[in-house]
Amino acid sequence: MSRNRNILLFTLIALAVVVFFCLDILIGSESLALKDIWAAITGRGAGDEMATNIVRRWRIPKALTAGAAGAALAASGLQMQTLFRNPLAGPFVLGVSSGASLGVAVFLMGMPLLGVPLAGDAVRNLGIVGSAWVGGAAVLLIIMAVSARVKDIMAILILGIMFGSAATAVVEILQFLAPEGSVKSFAVWTMGSFGHVTTSQLAVLLPFVLAGLALSVFLIKPLNTLLLGENYARTMGQSVRRTRAVIFVSTILLAGSVTAFCGPIGFIGIAVPHLARMIFADADHRILMPASILLGAAVMLLCDMISQLPGYSIVLPVNTITALLGIPIVIIVIVRNRKIF
Q1: Which DSSP string do the residues of 96-136 spell out, in sequence order?
Q2: Residues 6 or more apart from 330 whose CB is under 8 A from it?
Q3: Among 103, 161, 134, CA closest to 252
Q4: CA 116 to chain centroid
Q5: Could you tell me which residues come within 8 angstroms of residue 272 by beta carbon, excluding any fewer than 6 positions away?
Q6: How many CB atoms lie within 10 A of CB 341?
Q7: What is the pLDDT, as a whole number, of residue 89?
Q8: CB burial string 183-211: b at 16+ within 10 A, e below
Q9: Each residue's pLDDT tens digit, 6-28
Q10: Interatomic CA distance for residues 177 and 169, integer angstroms
């Protein structure tokens, strides 16, 4: 009975991903005819040239980016919650987001302070992505080096928060000193966006996300063992230190890559794994990992659709939508765990 129920739930969630993906392509600030969208996707028929450009160069890459970002953040969030045995842990708990923000802040606000011009959109986009990647990876490498000597996982968690706070402090100093235009560019990046990811950038993002998801699947058995604690994992012959290292690498591939290309996106990594637990009522990562990946993609596509505001020429920052959807789930988790009601 439970197996049939899980199959039904997985089928419905996978169907939701497909439906939301299609709707995300259909919905936008520019109203397009269905026949033109179909012609742009299939290449059949004489569709409108403008519609073809919008669908192929913007809507399809944006929908693919949203689905990949949601899956990546949800998978890394589940790993973090299991590793730290903390229901409020997320993919940015180790300071990946803060490190990426520091990298982008140094590029967008530090370079102008040093008199280095940021000429050209190509240079700016490449610099933002590269600096975010380097900043997030640098913080995670420091944490990995510390974890080689520190055995207490909570101490590593606290150190990650401290490193993230230090990075945030440096970012605020740069914001205070930088010109207004540079500060605005950085603020736009922090709001999160899928629409700025080009086809060429998506071709770089997807392989790294797929590699991180492959590691997440590889980690299913070790994560199940960690549910009973690190001491139990050691008695089962598992190398806890090596497992931590693989989880950290998976995190930088997943959360680090998404942050680099799309900006820091909150709450998906925290909320979606709990949503998977509520729906499937199971703690087995053989169920939770694929469920989190699919739900993450579905939820992020839904958030992207909501942010479109059909009929209007503006697009809301995706961070505002993920917060509005994610915060109630986090509140429910806290209430249930503390048995407030």
Answers
A1: HHHHHHHHHHIIIIIHHHTT----SHHHHHHHHHHHHHHHH
A2: 88, 267, 270, 271, 274
A3: 134
A4: 31
A5: 70, 73, 74, 77, 78, 292, 295, 296, 299
A6: 5
A7: 79
A8: bebbeebeebbbbbbbeebbeebeebbee
A9: 999 999 999 999 999 999 988 87
A10: 13
* pLDDT tens digit sequence for 127-146: 777 888 888 888 878 877 77
Q: Is the dihedral of CA 197, 200, 205, 210 positive or negative?
A: positive
What is the C-alpha separation between 137 and 143, in angstroms, rounded?
Answer: 10
- Tell the residue number behind the tokens 């192929």, with chain if given: 56
Of the candidates 231, 216, 239, which has an alpha carbon nearest to the alpha carbon of residue 286? 216
Average pLDDT for 149-158: 76
Q: Distance between CA 104 and CA 96 in Å, rounded?
A: 12
* Neighbour tally for 91: CB within 10 Å: 30
Q: Which two tokens stand for residue 341?
A: 């009601």
Whether 54 and 28 have beta carbons less than 8 Å apart is answered as yes
Number of residues assigned to the chain? 341
Is the CB of residue 294 less than 8 Å from the CB of residue 14?
A: yes
CA angle, corner 303, sides to 78 and 211, nearest 5? 40
Q: Give me the amino acid identity at 35.
A: K
Report the 10 Å Cβ neighbour count for 102: 28
Alpha carbon dihedral 206, 315, 133, 329, in 10-degree steps, equals -80
Provide the b/e sequence for 8-39 (b: ≥16 CB within 10 Å): ebeeebeebbeebbeebbbbbeeebeeebbeb
In which residue are the tokens 């940021």 written? Answer: 118
* pLDDT tier at 122, thresholds 50, 70, 90: low
Residues 6+ apart with CB under 8 A from 18: none
The tokens describing 149, both together, are 């000597």
What span, in angstroms and rounded, lies between the C-alpha atoms of 175 and 170?
9
Task: Give yes or no for a contact between 272 and 292, defined as CB atoms under 8 angstroms apart.
Answer: yes
| Confidence check: pLDDT of 299 > 90 | yes
Tokens representing residue 191 in the block: 């709001």
Rounded mean pLDDT of 25-50? 74
